[in-house]
Write a structure and sequence with these properties.
The protein is mostly beta strands. The chain has one helix at 58-64, and strands spanning 11-15, 22-26. Helices cover 9% and strands 13% of the residues. A two-stranded antiparallel ribbon has the order 1-2. It binds zinc ion. The site of zinc ion has 8 residues, from loops.
Length: 77
């Protein structure tokens, strides 16, 4: 097993809804809202990785999320 020392932290590009600048967001800041580096507008708090939701958290998450959502539903039976 090799460890990639010196590898940059994974990051995502989030396009500013105000000025269309692409802002690099570190993977550990995923889901947190930030500010555009160019115009300082608020960036949407986007998730790249799946977010587990339950019947108690689903409605609130969907209501407050600023981007399209891909949902996969499953039940244990
Ligand atoms: Zn901007």
């Amino acid at each position: 097993m090799s460890i990639n020392r010196g590898e940059p932290m994974p990051s995502y590009l989030i396009t500013c809804p105000s000025c269309n600048t692409e802002n690099r967001v570190a993977a550990d800041k995923e889901g947190m809202s930030g500010r555009c580096g160019t115009c300082h507008a608020k960036l949407p708090a986007l998730h790249i990785q799946p977010v587990p939701l339950t019947e108690h958290t689903f409605d609130n998450f969907v209501r407050n999320y600023d981007a399209p959502i891909l949902a996969e539903f499953w039940a244990p039976w």
